[in-house]
Design goal:
The protein has 99 residues and is an alpha+beta fold. It has a single domain, classed as 3-Layer(aba) Sandwich (Glutaredoxin). Helix content is 42%, strand content 25%. The protein contains 4 helices and 4 strands, in the order αβαβαββα. Strands 2-1-3-4 form a 4-stranded mixed beta sheet, with helices on one face. Helix 2 crosses helix 4. It starts with a helix and ends with a helix.
């Protein structure tokens, strides 16, 4: 996953990573929000989900201490990272800003 993850975040369009867990109730809420965000930004950005229980080393590498944690990368650089549930408008604006 690490090699594939590096390829994904090295993209020249923004990539929003959703670090989540299947047992996490707020993560389910965030997931439905992200579906709407994806519709809003279309091809302008990618949204990738990473299960922290399946990829604990990846979560640790990026300092994920709670779920959901969202991070935006572009050209391999971490541009923004925050834990907690975020709304559609905030995430849409962030992705458009970095596009």
């Amino acid at each position: 996953m690490s090699q594939k993850f590096q390829e994904i975040i090295n993209s020249d369009r923004p990539v929003l990573i959703d670090f989540f867990a299947t047992w996490c109730q707020p993560c389910k809420v965030q997931s439905s929000v992200l579906n709407t965000v994806k519709e809003n930004v279309g091809e302008g950005a990618r949204i990738i989900k990473v299960d922290v229980d399946q990829y604990p080393a990846l979560a640790a590498q990026y300092g994920v201490r709670g779920v959901p944690t969202l991070a935006i990368f572009k050209n391999g650089e971490l541009l923004w990272k925050e834990s907690g549930v975020h709304d559609v408008n905030t995430l849409t604006e962030l992705l458009k800003q970095y596009a």
